[in-house]
Amino acid sequence: MKVAVVGLGLIGGSVALDLKARGFASEVVGVDASAENVRIALELDIIRDIRPLVEAVAGADLVVLAIPVGAMIRVLPEILDAIPATATVTDMGSTKVKVCAAIADHPKRAQFVPSHPMAGTENSGPSAAKSNLFDRKIAVICDHGSVAPSHRARVEAMYVALGMRLVFMTPAEHDVHTAFVSHLSHVSSFVLANTVLEKEKDVTAIFDLAGGGFESTVRLAKSSPEMWGPILEQNRDNIADALGTYIRQLQEFHSALVAGDDGKMRTIMEDAGRIRRVLSGLGTRVERRS
Amino acid sequence: MKVAVVGLGLIGGSVALDLKARGFASEVVGVDASAENVRIALELDIIRDIRPLVEAVAGADLVVLAIPVGAMIRVLPEILDAIPATATVTDMGSTKVKVCAAIADHPKRAQFVPSHPMAGTENSGPSAAKSNLFDRKIAVICDHGSVAPSHRARVEAMYVALGMRLVFMTPAEHDVHTAFVSHLSHVSSFVLANTVLEKEKDVTAIFDLAGGGFESTVRLAKSSPEMWGPILEQNRDNIADALGTYIRQLQEFHSALVAGDDGKMRTIMEDAGRIRRVLSGLGTRVERRS
Fold first, then answer.
1. ipTM of the complex, rounded to two decimals
2. Which chain B residues contact residue A188 at CB under 8 A?
3. Is the pTM of this model over 0.90?
4. Which residue of A has its CA nearest to B263?
């Protein structure tokens, strides 16, 4: 199968590596608007064949979009215009409602399979791409009746080739759940980093004390603003809801702390411990749902 | 040197393993109020010699306290009463002002070296203990003129044997910095876990989407309430200050999000990216300050 990967960053670069190495793709063509990304992707042998967007997608059986969700909305209609009637397009963005709305009335709507592989790191760009990034992770397919079965099957086969397990949600369900489970974590991390940086003008104290748990909670603050700006814009209402809930619960904790209500703080910490069961399950989860 | 380790959890157990393996301790005697902890520590060969508290510390050259900071304040005076005039005591707790105040007027004050190794995991108990836990991490020594040089030198030698680098702060400085850099991270993680657990009544969605960054930000929510309750109590004012600052910054972000002020969100994310320099330095830091 001929695959065109649009966007050669962490996700697109990793997809290109694995689809080729695992034999799913007979050819991989790469597209990136950044000359620097192209240079690095070629140098790291992530991709060998670079082409302009329209040429790349016009010759592909499967087009994978791994670009920021703001660019996604602008570029997707153009890509659908350019692809043959037999080709399939999928995106790998973190928001789903807006991208689906952007091409709801496009004559080739049935060829577009919205999806979201739940994998990544806090790093970005082609130099962050790596093999096996997706193994044993979850891919969300947001088919809600608008996708032709053959195209959906092709995207599912790609994710299975990447080693992923499939789950299914509507675009609206996806955007609500990711607001709480993924997007809120990023906001909390960005703001936590700022809170500590503002307090600790001399970063020496951060260096010295970061072994006390700080590092893991602010890891996501390294995430790219170019990627996260459009996610926040497109999932604004759900993230505002999640963040509002988080702030209210922090205020409750703050009140208990100031009032010396140590029993309440204990209850909150014990409740939070239920997450242990969820996290321990992540490493051992075996069932495949569909 | 004969070392008594009081508290055989993650920290105490790991100390016992390394001090013996590295030849710093000729003998290690263990103390733990929990029969279950004692059983596990013996079974895992973390310790071979278990004794009652007073007997253990009366026969030791160096006493290491690795118990929750609430118990620390109650037990430390009793331990100072029981040790010989040549013995040294150090604690490994996450708060310093209250423990120093608790023995400020004790006749053996000069034998107590307050310290805090910045190492650990979100797991607890002797089964979480492991070798090399402290290697290349930072140990904070909170000597502020009340410690005799020979006792301070003994504790510094112990941390060097554990592979740690030393930094020095007053107890008050320590408690302010740890509130922002360590304790706040734990509160944010506890509350974030609760926020998501409350929203996602069916934890399936958390399982499915946790690959999107959630796992690292809530890792600390697995931390023991038994350990963290007393830390929150003893460092209440500093943590309330840190948490209040964090909440205000989250409210600013929330306002920008709701108002559609994407430029402001972008600025906040870019500011947060400065943490990249701090975190990347953590792996490569070589200087030793004193």
1. 0.92
2. 188, 192, 217, 250
3. yes
4. A229
